[in-house]
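Researcher: Good morning. I'm working through a list of sequences from a screen, and I'd like to move beyond sequence-only analysis. For each chain I'm collecting a predicted structure so we can compare shapes side by side. This is the next one on the list. No need for commentary yet; just the structure.
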Amino acid sequence: DKLHYLLNAVYKEPFQTSESKTNTSLGMVSVAGGSPESTSESGVGGGVIDETSVRFLSSDGMAFTLREEIIRAWTKNLLPTQHDQKVQLPEPSTTLEILFRFLQTSAHPDLEWTDFRILGPLSLAADSYGVYPAAQVCRIRREQALQNDIVNRPRAVMSYALDSQDWELVDKTVPFLIGESFAEMVKLMKTSNMIILWSKYLEKWDEVLQIAFSFSESRKVSAHYSKGYPRRGCNGCKSPMSDTTTIRIMLKLGKGVKSLRNLDDTFGTLGDFCCDTEREDIKAWRAEVERGIQGIPSFSSLLSSSDSELGDASGGTHDNT
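Model: Good morning. Structure tokens for this chain:
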């Protein structure tokens, strides 16, 4: 009886369904009803919802009902301080459904192949509510997903990094967001101060882009006349060909600061050049750009500096002795 009770302790109820159905894989039941007040509720296997149950509402209008003793035993900071059978939570149903599956005695989700769009919010919720089995699985899966997601889903990684205040991860992620639309970054940044700092951070990358453009003028290849027409050619092998390598690189740089995210793509491989002189020329050009990128301060350091300035401006503690 006790095992049966525990298995039926968590179930999910959408407000807008028109018929009841049992999901045996989740151990949850969807109950018919039009509103929280008028819904007739029952647990899996005929268990009755009583005053010891607590209903949690997701941000998108889904209801999850858990037994109070399950909440006390397996979570932290989730049970309301005052007994209330209806608690509004800020997380969406997609996050809460997975989180509450970790409160069941059946096999927990292994979250294999789950990316940061799910792992980020789930990790924050697991840490916040002390669902430690979920937090542990999320930690392992985050490490596995990071290498791929930081390139392909940098906004999801950045959202998690900012919410969790993982500044090391913030600094790893921001270069992959260079070139994203400013409107998308405004949505991502959490405060107006961060938006301002993001603008300043982009200015640093713009300065490096200007260095990249200006350095092309000081290369060893130079204009010379071939059959009466001024054409750029290589001073190493004296090839009369147009400087196609320079043109290709300039076209890449013309796409903006996003071109600085992948210098291998922008500057090509060392086998793309007509002679050793041009190869060394391009290497020096790229090295100048790399030095500029290395000189860009980390985003977290800009944020830390800004916070210090705000603290001083708001009348922080000063030694007047």
